[in-house]
Hints:
By secondary structure, the chain is of the alpha+beta class. The protein is 42% helix and 18% strand. Strands 13, 14, 15, 16, 17, 18, 19 and 20 form an eight-stranded mixed β-sheet that branches. Strands 10-9-8-11-12 form a five-stranded mixed β-sheet, sandwiched between helices. Helix 4 crosses helix 12 and helix 9 packs antiparallel against helix 10. The two termini are 56 Å apart.
Amino acid sequence: MSVTVESEALGAKNSEQTEPTFLTRLERGRNVIKDAVQNFPLLPGVYRMLGEDKEVLYIGKAKNLKNRVASYTNVNELSYRIRRMVSNVHSVVFSVVPSESAAIFLEADLIRTLKPMYNVALKDATPFVSISISKDHDFPRVARHRGVFNHEKEEYCGPFSSAKSVDEALLNIYKIFKLRGCSDSCFAKRTRPCLQYDMKRCSAPCVGKIDKQEYADAVKHSKDFLAGKVVCIRDCLKKEMLAASDDLAFEKAARCRDSIRNLERLSDIEKETTGGLQDVDVIVLLHGENTEHSIVQETAFPCVYTLIIRNNTYLGGDTFFLNNEANYLTPSENIEAFIQQFYLDRTPPRRILLNYLPENQDLLECALKERHGVNTRIEFPRRGNGRKWIQIALKNAAEQSRYESAKQTEFGENLKKIAEIFVLPQVPKRVEIYDNSHIQGKYAYGCFVVATHEGFDKKSYRKFAVNPRREGAVGQGGDDFAMMEEVIKRRVKDPEKNPLPDLMLIDGGAGQVTSVMKILREYNLEDIMVIGIAKGPDRNAGRERFFLPGWAPISLPQDDPTLFFLQRVRDEAHRFAISTHRDAKARSITKSQLSDIPGVGNTRKKLLLQKFGSVQRIQKASVEELCSVDGISRALAKVILDFWR
């Protein structure tokens, strides 16, 4: 593990409080860097350019920190983008690492965590999905997994590039090997087979329809299947079928026969082999400057498409859009930045095929080996099967880019039309759509979704639990007007954490708009435009009326595209509010009575439910039976039983 030594070097600030021109700010930033670099070591590491409020502007790596950062003082040799960054620099921070290759992933980690303004970053940096197989159960569960790995309790197969690929693989596992996908608590309380057994997608180990050894063999076959060892699995299943037939175990023989048929059917579908590619990631970049491939000449958005191949098996692909900073870098620089972030937490394969080679290819290969212990070769295939897969990835990337382009064009054009129709002072860049959901005041939530010219910004969605007992609450959960006032007040009181919108769309009529305007006036935010959207007579969609402060209600033609767009964003807010409300209701309904027992926390509650399967069985258990659960003493067992008496 590399150890970093961190130090901060601050440049002297200009005595002027404000700099009136860009050139003055640029000179001040240059002086800051010039003063700071005097304290920099001649060692490899990572540096951070910081702004006036210590916000991170840019993160870079260097073989020699002093020389690399000093190059920013030659402002005449810098691009306009970098000069603009230098003009905002107020201090510089550096971290020393043992080697230049170690700096690669430290830089990527900091970029992902701090999200600097002037660095290329992935817009969709969600972790890949894997398939988990539990280790702590006689009949292991096979399910989809995303997030942190727990290797002590689970074994992981993958990674897959998308949830769709995982779902397809899981469906094949359920059909062919009939492994369970239910939770341990559900497994424990089953008294008869579930619907999955009737659909021939589970062998019903919960009620003893299959023994432990046969189930373990199925788990082993499923692992081989995910590793692409289809021929080996088929041979093993044939041997098991014949052996079971000789032993007159015809039910087991029939299960093996069905598995073989499903496996052969799947093999026929996948006869489009990868052409000898074993463990390979195919990564292609679509870039605005790309003229090599006619397929991407009209690409509007820089993006990267990845294909995953493991053991001659294609596991799917996924698209990653890059932020706007990618437009200022060369394709080689973009692909290098992507690889740094992409393999930050993912183990690379033996080969990575690219349509652009990074400038620091050898350094990247060395860094991948140091971080993951894998000898990975980065290649640019010019012919053969590798080139064929590069073209396949490019076609997929082009389709995704065109789709993203059409989506952004749609949102941008509709926001312009909204500004024209409702006579807004400017085209809104950020629109927030609000809705409330409750049942007679219970499980009350106010929510908003965010729309920009790029589409729905789901990371900015927010929900507010409206609790009438909360200190400072405006009103009861069932009062829609009071709910809206409380939600808006909580939304606007801290604008630094969340940027304020240009336009608020409210699911409601004149009353809701009045409630919102009351809060906005209280916070001196009358410049935020507010529009209420209410369904027409008999709540008939398509006959919506729109309410603006000081305007009479207006309607749009039923075939107006802008009306369809407004209905769409309103329905998205409604969907988010309803799902939030239902989740809260479900959590309340499924809340275990065990949570109210003194001395029973989440861990003991989970162990009790795994042992007995339900609260009703725990109520009927004896003290000795309760004491057989880890962490339950005789005294606590008596407390649990006394709780229901």
